[in-house]
Amino acid sequence: MVVGDLKTDQGIKSLNEYLADRSYVSGYEPSQADISVFESISKVPSANTPHVLRWYNHIKSFDGAERKKLPGEKKLPSGFAGGSAAVVNGAPTPAKESKPAPAAAEDDDVDLFGSDEEDDTEAAKIREERLKAYAEKKSKKPALIAKSSIVLDVKPWDDETNMKEMEQKVRTIEMDGLLWGGSKLVPVGYGINKLQIMCVVEDEKVSVDLLTEQIQEFEDYVQSVDIAAFNKI
């Protein structure tokens, strides 16, 4: 799709549609393309464009040094207003007008070697076989599984809560499509730490709301659960 001028509301709306099923502007990790688009936006997105707002806050979290280390070339991607070789001022670049081929000489109308119908039939047969083989190969490809990477903040009741035991309780939760990742303790003040733990879920199989409810059922340890980060993979 074409993303228009990012300094206009319509451009932000089209970017919101573009990011509906993407975590980043290009690829599966932040890059200089994200920085270029981020710097092209003139104001903070509103809650009416939730996908842009999620992406905007994520890119904003990188400081200047971290942004310079991101891979790629710093320019708007193809398909964005002002992007490379695709769009100018939000509209596709018109194709060059092709010149008509010179008329063939009258002598070319004379078929000196008979009809080419047999060659055309053979070419059409080969083309149909290739299309059929391509369709069969494509149908055998596994369907793309939508996944999300989530960081959860699990807060204890007080500084006397055994955080190691609390993490062990959280990791006992098992669901089809849930994979626990790394974790760390983050100070929140007054000697209290919160557990920050990452997980990857298959969107169609795991309900995030149900997951947080199950964690909160360990009420001897857990006071509350918040989502610190949520990104599509």
UniProtKB/TrEMBL annotation:
SUPFAM superfamilies named in the record: eEF-1beta-like, GST C-terminal domain-like
Superkingdom assignment: Eukaryota
Pfam assignment, any one: EF1_GNE
GO MF: guanyl-nucleotide exchange factor activity; translation elongation factor activity
Region of interest: Disordered: 87-122
InterPro entries linked to this entry: Arc1-like_N, eEF-1beta-like_sf, EF-1_beta_acid_region_euk, EF1B_bsu/dsu, EF1B_bsu/dsu_GNE, Glutathione-S-Trfase_C_sf, Transl_elong_EF1B/ribsomal_bS6, Transl_elong_EF1B_B/D_CS
Biased composition (Low complexity): 91-104
PROSITE patterns tied to this protein: EF1BD_1, EF1BD_2
Residue ranges annotated for the Translation elongation factor EF1B beta/delta subunit guanine nucleotide exchange domain, each copy included: 147-233
CDD domains per UniProt: EF1B (cd00292), GST_C_eEF1b_like (cd10308)
Compositional bias segments (type: Acidic residues): 105-121
SMART domains in alphabetical order: EF-1_beta_acid, EF1_GNE
Domain Elongation factor 1 beta central acidic region eukaryote residue range list: 112-138
GO CC, alphabetical: cytosol; eukaryotic translation elongation factor 1 complex
Keywords: Elongation factor, Protein biosynthesis
Family: Belongs to the EF-1-beta/EF-1-delta family.
Binding partners and assembly: EF-1 is composed of 4 subunits: alpha, beta (alpha subunit of the eEF1B subcomplex), delta (beta subunit of the eEF1B subcomplex), and gamma (gamma subunit of the eEF1B subcomplex). Interacts with elongation factor EEF1A1.
Role summary: Catalytic subunit of the guanine nucleotide exchange factor (GEF) (eEF1B subcomplex) of the eukaryotic elongation factor 1 complex (eEF1). Stimulates the exchange of GDP for GTP on elongation factor 1A (eEF1A), probably by displacing GDP from the nucleotide binding pocket in eEF1A.
Protein name (Swiss-Prot/TrEMBL): Elongation factor 1-beta
Source species of the chain: Gryllus longicercus
Taxonomic lineage from the root: Eukaryota, Metazoa, Ecdysozoa, Arthropoda, Hexapoda
